[in-house]
Amino acid sequence: MTVLDRFRLDGKVAVVTGAGRGIGAGCALALAEAGADVVLSSRTEAQLADVAAQVEALGRRAVLVPADLSDLDQVAALAQRAYDDLGRLDVVVNNVGGTIPNAFLDTTPDYLEEAFRFNVSTAHALSRAAVPLMLASADDQGDGPARAGSIVNISSVMGRVAGRGYLAYGTAKAALSHWTRLAARDLDPHITVNAIAVGSVMTSALEFVAGHEETRHAMEEVTPLRRIGEVEDIAATALWLASRAGGYVTGKVIEVDGGLDRPNLDLGLPDLTVKEQS
């Protein structure tokens, strides 16, 4: 087997959440290009259909599952759908997540809990449902414990740096990153669990940047590599972690953020302190 062969996923099956656009779509297409069949899920069926057509153009099978992925039962059901429709399950990419930035005093306990549920509980629900099916799909490779699969979580740089307005989102992504480390210990040696801490990536969430030269320049300036990331930067990392190429990596949070080690941009939210509100 050559080094490049280790990136192949021929005969494997993956589930990708939030797969209708952006990072989720990019990851799904990267896995398909490497040979995997893919279950695609997000809210919007039209977006999924477009991604599915691209997967099929690569010669792979695509199963569309429009769903409300904030519903833990619906997200967990994706694992069985993959196994029933495609015959096995090898890779899970937990990409669903996100939280709208908010000022401190507008971040209620309910808002914080909702962020945790959407970014962490969804990943846990799908992964928990997937593990028995991954074990049932395990291939004996003759070189140690059978590798049963890979779980890849999409986390964020905001899980380790501070930025105004990101309290709920950053706390949830920090929790997802540590969930990754803990789950990896629970599931070794058969299933690898890793996360990608994503920096600023040019997706629809950053459309405001594309049309605002000053904002884009400021974001590039705080990034050591002096550019906004591309979806393919994240997709390539997900493929590495999902394939045998990343088979000796588990419990790690891979920082794909252009070298960021300090906050991104503040969002112009007011500095709502107790003193100012008294």
Walk me through the structure:
- By secondary structure, the chain is α/β, with parallel strands linked by helices.
- It has a single domain (4-255), classed as NAD(P)-binding Rossmann-like Domain (Rossmann fold).
- It is 42% helix and 14% strand.
- It has 9 helices and 7 strands; from the N terminus they run βαβαβαβαβαβαααβα.
- The protein has helices spanning 22-33, 45-57, 72-86, 109-136, 167-187, 207-210, 213-221, 231-242, 274-277, and strands at residues 13-17, 37-42, 62-66, 91-94, 149-156, 191-198, 253-256.
- It has a 7-stranded parallel β-sheet, sandwiched between helices.
- Helix 2 (45-57) links the parallel strand 2 (37-42) and strand 3.
- Helix 1 (22-33) crosses helix 8 (231-242), helix 3 (72-86) packs parallel to helix 4 (109-136) and helix 4 (109-136) runs parallel beside helix 5 (167-187).
- It is globular, with a radius of gyration of 19 Å.
- The termini are far apart.
- The model is unreliable at 274-278 (pLDDT under 50).
- GO terms for molecular function: cholate 7-alpha-dehydrogenase (NAD+) activity.
- This is 7-alpha-hydroxysteroid dehydrogenase.
- Its EC number is 1.1.1.159.
- It comes from Nocardioides marmoribigeumensis.
- Keywords: NADP, Oxidoreductase.
